[in-house]
Amino acid sequence: xxxxxxxxxxxxxxxxxxxxxxxxxxxxxxxxxxxxxxxxxxxxxxxxxxxxxxxxxxxxxxxxxxxxxxxxxxxxxxxxxxxxxxxxxxxxxxxxxxxxxxxxxxxxxxxxxxxxxxxxxxxxxxxxxxxxxxxxxxxxxxxxxxxxxxxxxxxxxxxxxxxxxxxxxxxxxxxxxxxxxxxxxxxxxxxxxxxxxxxxxxxxxxxxxxxxxxxxxxxxxxxxxxxxxxxxxxxxxxxxxxxxxxxxxxxxxxxxxxxxxxxxxxxxxxxxxxxxxxxxxxxxxxxxxxxxxxxxxxxxxxxxxxxxxxxxxxxxxxxxxxxxxxxxxxxxxxxxxxxxxxxxxxxxxxxxxxxxxxxxxxxxxxxxxxxxxxxxxxxxxxxxxxxxxxxxxxxxxxxxxxxxxxxxxxxxxxxxxxxxxxxxxxxxxxxxxxx
Length: 435
Ligand code: CMC
Prior knowledge:
Layout: E1 5-10, E2 15-20, E3 61-64, E4 69-72, E5 75-76, H1 77-83, H2 86-95, H3 101-112, H4 120-126, H5 134-148, H6 158-184, H7 197-206, H8 217-229, H9 237-247, H10 252-263, H11 271-282, H12 288-296, H13 315-331, H14 336-349, H15 351-355, H16 362-373, H17 380-400
Antiparallel strand pairs: 1-2, 3-4, 4-5
Helix pairs in contact: 1-8, 2-17, 4-5, 4-6, 5-6, 5-10, 6-7, 6-17, 7-8, 8-13, 9-10, 9-17, 10-17, 11-16, 13-16
The structure holds carboxymethyl coenzyme *A (CMC).
Carboxymethyl coenzyme *A (CMC) is lined by residues 236, 267-269, 271, 295, 301-308, 356, 358, 361-363.
């Protein structure tokens, strides 16, 4: 079979190069041979924000953004959301195959038996102010786990890696619930091994004085489904952070904390909290068109809209809308839904959003469900971080075991001064940059 190639003529030298094209991609390093002189460094690519650069090969998650397709290990997200539990999907993402009954039973047992936190964790948590943002508490506490499990630094041992993966998946809901209870001033609740992953999380969040917490099965299933939808999304900002930090061989707790920090930003996972603020600001259906007009005039963004990869309806947003119906049947409808539906209706007919292919993303409806379930908006991104931990860890493992990967280290195009003459302080002019 003949290999696809790309022929490039360098007009600076009139030399022609033939580069191999593999999977629709040329290797950036193949450009380095294009030099204007033996001392020239060679041609580089410039791609701020990685708009058109693949940083890895991966077998975990497939997205076709133009057609609105999302698959984990080849299975459509719609099928997984309907038929699987979150821990089953976690197994799929981490190990590449769906588990059989015995494998799933063992896996659930393992994760369940890693939900307990070291008692010291409470002391870290107690150090935070009562009004600390739960996401900041989560990031800091996950990083602090590195102090409890120093052996996690041995990232080259597969068995040791797996142990830390189980710990992180097991402990994430426990830390999240602790941060929630801390902000309310409630005592922390220990995990209950009789409950499944979502039910146990609900137990740690909401158990008060009753001897045994009983989760509403519809709400527990809805939470589990939302966890499935958020579990992985290939090379987004937080996952790329996980890979970049992990590529320096930092331990998985520190790398996960870094990834969670990236997730917290309002352009990424923090958008779900911003959507609720936006709906509050809009206030009622009648104000929607005025708000959209302001956005089009350049005053702010429609939070929960747009995506770097999806240029079609985010398939997760469709499933979330369906899940919302199940939740609202139990909790009663969130009045913000009407505003959100009107916002979506008007935006999807508006030329500004249509031409830019801006559709609701996963964060648009998730917050409305979470609020109906009783979560404060500050918890929404924490709820995103719990399942995304699985994706981060699957991608971290893949990165560490990929012989092509090295420490992440982009190049730059330096545009600043060179070789300046140094002036002693008394001879320097007033520049005024500190004003
Ligand atoms: N509201 C209004 N205009 C928008 C929006 C929006 N939400 N998103 C993009 N645009 C405009 C943008 O101003 C630009 O217009 P122009 O071509 O006239 O300059 C055009 O659409 C292209 O946008 P971009 O900023 O170049 O796109 P990007 O790929 O760099 O950004 C994004 C993607 C998700 C950061 C952006 O769409 C955004 O800020 N959305 C709101 C925040 C949000 O919902 N984030 C959650 C993302 S999905 C889940 C996750 O990652 O956690």
